[in-house]
Amino acid sequence: xxxxxxxxxxxxxxxxxxxxxxxxxxxxxxxxxxxxxxxxxxxxxxxxxxxxxxxxxxxxxxxxxxxxxxxxxxxxxxxxxxxxxxxxxxxxxxxxxxxxxxxxxxxxxxxxxxxxxxxxxxxxxxxxxxxxxxxxxxxxxxxxxxxxxxxxxxxxxxxxxxxxxxxxxxxxxxxxxxxxxxxxxxxxxxxxxxxxxxxxxxxxxxxxxxxxxxxxxxxxxxxxxxxxxxxx
Length: 232
Prior knowledge:
9-stranded mixed beta sheet
């Protein structure tokens, strides 16, 4: 498998926010046109990855000071770009006793083995990404209560789009989140941050929409803690 980085940190967003987790960032993405909001451009190309077997990845994960039932978050790039080996990796990690979460861009179908993972996070593409209507929305809204569907919203057009989709597809499963765009320039590499007033007002607008739609709001807490840098 092509691996960009492996590190141990707190989960910064979503249903399992603040949980100690080992992150396995795979290299390579299936989207030829990249999302405008992507904050992991360094993992787009498989050439930026190191070849590792699922066994070697699982051994590296086990080298961290973690215990049974710790979360392992497989992200990217796009993990499903390496679907066959990804399924084998999930099996290896489950044998070690870890809980596995997989973050996907939502444009590829669920693999036949998808229930092996304890949780999926699908990012439904809004208009400002430059890739609206590309996500397999209907499929990802048919997952489980422990799975998550996320909309990264940066404009009113995004918010209106998310509302239409949510009102059309939302049931009791999975968890649905609105995640306001966070500009890397707000966060220094040394830590610390300065959020513009305009952004705070936008977050309030998103929060109010979350209340209206009865969905969760998700902020990238790791950026507030460590700033805009890799490996956190």
